[in-house]
Amino acid sequence: MLMKRRTHNKSRHGCRNCKKRHVKCDEQGPPCTNCAARGLEGCSYLPDPPSQLPATETRRRLELELMHRWSTRTFMSLVCIPEDIKWLQGDMPIWALKNEYLLHGMFAFVALEIGLCGDAVMDEDPVVYVKLALEYYDKASRAFRAQLENVTPENAQKMFMFSFLAVGVNMALAQCEGMIAFEQNILERMVALWELLMGNASIADRYYDVLISGALSQSTEAILIRTSQQTQTPASLPSETEAALERLSAIIEKAIQPRGRESSDPEARAEDAVRTRIYRSSFTAIKKCFEVDSKDLYKGAAIGFPAMAGREFGPALKKSDPVAMFLMMHWGVQLHALGKLAWWVGSFGQKMVRELSGILWESDLGADTPGWRENITWARIEVELIPLGGVTPEEERQLRSVMAPLLGSAASQFPPAPWRRSLTAHEDGELCPLLQRFSSFLLLWKKCYSLDDW
């Protein structure tokens, strides 16, 4: 006759002694019946584990949080004009529910906003949301790439919007240093960003008629009206910016001069023609962005720079062409201004200027090209970085104008001469110590002391 299997003689919540002896505990202690009968000391119980929602339930709630956040807050960071509100808040979530790559792209974008800006509901740790964003963006990108060979009038609007969300995600990820490990530096991310923006522009160019109809029609009409208005409105650029653009124009004209090769060489002539086209179109584009932004008719003109500069600029940037990087440094100034309005741009422009200016300062062109280092200094001051090589009196005035909003009425009280240095006195790139201290502790002083009395 078969023996019956013995019944299980343990419990999940027994005392430590019973667990150690592998016997069933009646869980009535301490002490429990077993420990009392044997006179054992140390009858104690492990604390109950914290109750956790099942993974699927947690994810469902997180996604509800992300969708709610998009519809009440995040969408506003993409609004250029009031007419954008209706379709970004109402139509985008509906499109996303019908297109998985767009849904996951939205979730990635919102999760990054929570990770960088706070006000989370489900988890207080921002890293949780940044990792969630990476997961969703990976899924979205794979699904989007699968659709790229099948862009149609029916899905063009959704593809266009995902490609723009991808731009925002890439800019935002560059600001997550310290939360997750990155393999890309800012220059590599800049090239990837350029390619994303060119892809976005390609969809817009091919399906322009589709994009300006339907949900986007009111926004398109409003943009066209504002564009016609801005042609009649004079630009209002700060004098320092106008001077920087004049120097940039002279640098571009010098850079497109033939490089001492025989003019009869067809290959050399072709290279010179391409270089001339790239540099001039890019300069025209960056100047236009500065001018449009100064008119304040709509936000975000800087994002249009890659499309206006043209597709040929990308390969020059990939090759680390110094003039292409110099132009990108000026775009970084524009993005820095936009970053004060849009969280997803944030410090991306400043990071661009910091990395590019360090490379360009040491470039051979720096010593041979008038205005080269002056524009690097201008760009660094514009994005609130310490100038390389100190500052001249004119740059000191520019620095004061940038810092004035931070200091209020105390701006005029800062001592002038002690922290001023000439460029020639610091050709090795050494920072002026007093200026470095001034910049580093500026916000601390503002917070801790009454600078009006200082």
Q: Work out the strand percent.
A: under 5%
Q: State the major sheet.
A: none
**What is the strand tally?**
0
Average pLDDT, rounded to a whole number, is: 78
Can you tell me the number of structural domains? 2
Based on CA atoms alone, the radius of gyration comes out at: 30 Å
**Which term fits the overall shape?**
elongated
How far apart, in Å, are the first and last alpha carbons? Answer: 99 Å
In helices, the fraction of residues equals 55-70%
Task: List low-confidence stretches.
Answer: 1-10, 49-53, 409-454
Order of helices and strands: HHHHHHHHHHHHHHHHHHHH
Output the number of helix runs: 20
Class per helix and strand makeup: mainly alpha
